[in-house]
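User: For a reading group we're discussing how well predicted structures match intuition. Take Integrase. Before you show the prediction, I'll give you the sequence so everyone sees exactly what went in.
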Amino acid sequence: MRRLYERCLQPHADGRLQGLRALIPYKRVKLYRRSAKVARAGGVGKAGAFQQLLDRHPELEALIVTELRAHHVVLKEGSQGLVVGGLSALHKRFRQRCLELGLTERDYPLVQAEQGIRSLAVAVKSIAARSFEQAARAALAQKRSGGVRPDAAGLPLVAAIPFDAVVEESFEIERVWLLTIIDICSRAVLGCHIVLDPEYSRFDVLKTVERALVPWRPPALTIPGLPYTTGAGMPSERLPELGYAVWNWFRFDNAKANLAADTLRVLTEIVGCGAHAGPAYRPNERPHIECFFGTLASVLSHRLPGTTGAGASDPRRRIAELTATSAAVVRLDELMELTAVAIANYNAASHTGLGGRSPLEMLGYYVREKQIALRWLAEPMQRNLCLLQHEHEGHVRGSVAEGVRPYIHFFGTNYISHSLAGRADLIGKPVRLYFDAEDIRALRVFDTAGRELCVVEVQAAWRYTAHTLRMRREILALVRARKLRIQHNEDPVQCYLDFLRDGAASRRRSASKAELARRAMKDATPAPTAPPGPAGNTPAEHAEVPPGPC
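Assistant: Thanks. Here is the predicted 3D structure of Integrase, as structure tokens, for the group to look at:
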């Protein structure tokens, strides 16, 4: 036991202790070092002789290292592994150096028939492979990815335990959408939302509406020297009385996400405004939003690396070429900060069309001086953030004859609760489901009359990690196409993330989806929570619901 314990304490080549690796049968914990001299010529009895030669004459090893650094000797990949190029010239210089050190034709390796050329090749590969950087240089690699950067000397080379070391990966995403809601009279931006998907959906439109209603809080800035101008901000933050203020008309273009049933329902039934879609292919009918994006492009997007400018002749298209000495990229977090500051400063900038006033000053004039009549979102809606609700029609499934308890099937998987499992009378009945598109691990169930039944949670491995409705659909599509395999009890979301990471380096769309998934898990609560459902339910409406956990 003492001997095995001492073996475990021996240092390993990776810099750590051998540990339990030393208990593997026939596992060597020390490199072989020859002590006996080479007595005669021949091909047997020479184990460790060349390493012994290098130990006795460090000048020979220094010669090999010098030749590798000068690229007089290179490594190539062959069918049998690494192959040494330029070995013959190195062997001549090696032999000459041996003679200079006082070795004769009777000494090893000159006494051998091939004078140690094969052992020299093994030594070259061994010395070059001591580090990845050295081996890559010896192989004349043009690109070396991974590993520790040369300027990160303080980081450990290995991660022995969780949270010992972490790594950050950067990928190029495909597209960024900016959705905004602008007040026409004052030109003020009421709210905005950034979307990373190739196309924005109705859920993104509803999120933008929510951002325009909920009081704005300025995000913390991490970019040095990035300032808010004096008086900059959003209307709901600079004028607190505009928090949860709603509008009378909502004008938009004919995008399918704007014309979706959920979008129109929220606008007409919850916000209580009229929805007006303008004529197709007529951007001049919405001049204020076009003017805003033109201003935002000139002060922000056209000044960023990678911009395509305003046209083919715009010299700003060459920004990436002119800054080739540095990384011409903008991180997503930095882009969000820049956008927030640019919009906040836009609201505080003077406009010629407003007589030199800023949008915030114009709003303050109408709200505080002229005291115009305002409408606000109902108090129950403000507390429950009802704009996150999305209605879906479903049925309660199950079978009394086959002993299958009642459950709800929703987008590829089953949902159940203790309360629902005991309601045999609900089997086959239609129900209304309300869910949060940002985390669909829980649903709130109502009957067709609007009475709340219970909250159901997703079953199987889907409950482990928060995921959006778009992620669920994407995972199911990949499984049907046999591009993603999920074993029993494996977390589908984690398998999906691994699939995206594999393609993020070569495909922008995969990088965008990976970032969306990461943000969904970051913003979600540890336990799934269901949306509040439709407002207006009274205690009497819940009297028929049997007691029990949901």
